[in-house]
Amino acid sequence: MRTLPLTAALLAPALVLANGYDVPNTAARDSALAGSATAAQVDAGATYANPAALARLGAGLQLSLSGSILNLETKWTDTSGTLSPSPATTKRKPVPPVALYASYGFKLGDRNAAVGLGMNVPGGGNVFWDDQWAGRGRIVTVDRKIYGAYLTGGYEVAKQLRIGGGLVYYYGTEYLKQGVQPFPGTFGELSTKGGAVAFDLAAEAAPFDGVPLGIGVDFKYHAKMKLKGDGHFINPPPALAGQMLDQGVTHELPYPSVLNAGLSYKPASTLLLTLGFTYTWYSIYEEDLFVGDKGMTILVPRNYGNGTTWRLGAEWQAHPVLQLRAGVLRDLSGLSTDTYSPTLPDADSWVAAVGAGWAATRDLTVNAAFFRAFLDKVTATGPEALPGRYQTSVWIATLGVSWRTGLGQ
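and the corresponding structure tokens:
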């Protein structure tokens, strides 16, 4: 069918890379520790980070509420000598992810237990290139958000061992816009949404009595979201209007399994050290398959690798009402330069984070964090990649509160 290349041009740039779709844990304390606190949760944020820890936090209601501003910018520079204008930079359009959690602790028999409820934005991406930039035929806009909702709990099976887990619901939305060459005023766009259920398993232990060492593990199983929506052409040339057909589209979008493991240790009463490791199974993303309701089936093979991240954090009780925090991490994204794309530029990265917590009252703490990612420069190498050098920067500023009823610890 003659409409196949045009439909493929509309649908193909959905996803190319791996860890570039991760959004860090934006709960304020976790962000300041660069996500290294899997074994050192202290509030209702454990609903997401490690549900087993909920059973350690005491009786009554607790809240952890954080709001952030996330800014991502990418600069592209042509390396072929054939593309212009060069360089080009994405438009600045910060987004506001939130991390909202509530938990309730109680006794179950003679053991501590708790349940938690929350939501955040664990994945997604935003890229807004100029409508007429040199790579408009590859992509102009990507606006993807993956929302997570969590119903989890924890139970103390022994004095020094807690287990937890629960249900996770992922809901994805995506909007893609791409220029159609060689028509400067013609664009294809795609908008879909849908969700899927997954699960969480977690554990926390203090293996040595009298030794301030903690171990934490959290595993979230993958989900395959069933997205549905529409494909649409903007301003098709009259001579090609019969080929540029609007149609309904379905798309299965996997969100990978994620394992977080961590250690915590207090070498002094005022100092907490945290170590974390994350493994993300992005190799589940073997292909993108788009199915239109007018006979179109588009298969886009992908070349993903699994991602790994190493994390280190420290929290210092500088004053009875003031905690200072810092963290670093190294992320190895699993990207392939042969399939590198401006749809959502990715790279291995270093991250530095800082933050503080101020105990406004006995039961209310105000937390702040600043998270800055330094992504490696990447040069696309594959014959199907848009030739160029990419430099991406990301920062996240977060403000939050942690509150408890004070009914018992």
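(Above: one complete record from the training split.) Residues 3-11 form the longest helix (9 residues).
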